[in-house]
């Protein structure tokens, strides 16, 4: 059996596992079924790429657990061509899934070595995410407003700048949404916040998760 074939089989077993764990959006599962997660981690861990686990990617950071990526993608539910901002590029895996869903992806990472490695990897794999090095809690003013923003690190509160950079509702279209885990260092609650007006937002509080911390530059 060739290695590629082996990875493909493990990947489809993972997708079945995610479906059983409650991920019901076939679009999301299909997109994840097209992303070679093993290419987003170091060689030593590749054999574990299709376990439903977060794994280390260096610098004390992790590639998110596939269930978490599926869950956040399902909440965000990006339509093709929507403008999406991701905070916390990390390995690039979540960004690749968003690209597979047809979104126009902008992604920010604060750690130089991870940014450098992942920017090259995404290009090499043909994912057209626009990458940026910096503090994502400030958003990306020159590209805003966004249809959706997804934060893949645990925040202690909701950065105001991210709320400001969500699209306003217009012409019967709903406003932009922000998917963000908020809480302490041990666990965070996933929030889905939708902009309903200039200064008004609607917040849903969902399940608990444990992310690496969102670190704002002072
Ligand atoms: N989406 C990633 C998850 C990586 S873990 C993946 O699919 O692999 C979270 C990442 O957020 C880490 O790489 C961390 O360095 C980054 N991060 C933390 N605080 C940040 C901030 N303020 N701005 C941008 N990136 C941040």
Radius of gyration, whole Å: 17 Å
SS class: alpha/beta
Question: What percent of residues adopt helix (DSSP H or I)?
Answer: 25-40%
Query: What is the residue-mean pLDDT, rounded to a whole number?
Result: 97
Relevant terms:
alpha/beta; Rossmann fold; 7-stranded mixed β-sheet; two-stranded antiparallel sheet; 9 strands; binds S-adenosyl-L-homocysteine
Description of the structure:
The protein is of the alpha/beta class. It has a single domain, classed as Vaccinia Virus protein VP39 (Rossmann fold). It is built from six helices and nine strands. It has a seven-stranded mixed β-sheet. A two-stranded antiparallel ribbon has the order 1-2. Strand 1 and strand 2 form a beta hairpin. Helix 1 packs antiparallel against helix 2. The radius of gyration is 17 Å and the shape is globular. The N and C termini lie far apart (52 Å). The mean pLDDT is 97. It binds S-adenosyl-L-homocysteine.
């Amino acid at each position: 059996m060739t290695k590629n074939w082996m990875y493909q089989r493990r990947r489809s077993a993972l997708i079945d596992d995610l479906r059983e764990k409650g991920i019901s959006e076939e679009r999301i599962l299909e997109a994840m079924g097209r992303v070679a997660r093993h290419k987003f981690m170091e060689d030593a861990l590749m054999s574990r790429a299709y376990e439903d686990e977060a794994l280390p990617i260096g610098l004390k950071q992790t590639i998110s657990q596939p269930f978490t990526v599926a869950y956040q993608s399902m909440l965000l539910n990006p339509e093709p061509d929507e403008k999406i901002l991701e905070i916390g590029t990390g390995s690039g895996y979540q960004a690749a899934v968003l690209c597979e869903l047809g979104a126009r992806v902008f992604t920010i990472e604060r750690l130089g070595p991870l940014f450098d490695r992942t920017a090259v990897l995404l290009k090499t794999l043909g994912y057209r995410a626009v990458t940026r090095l910096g503090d994502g809690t400030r958003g990306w003013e020159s590209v805003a407003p966004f249809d959706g923003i997804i934060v893949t690190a645990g925040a202690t509160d909701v950065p105001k700048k991210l709320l400001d950079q969500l699209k306003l509702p217009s012409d019967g279209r709903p406003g932009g949404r922000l998917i963000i885990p908020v809480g302490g260092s041990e666990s965070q609650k996933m929030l889905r916040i939708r902009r309903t007006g200039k200064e008004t937002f609607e917040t849903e509080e969902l399940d608990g998760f444990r992310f690496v911390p969102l670190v704002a530059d002072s």
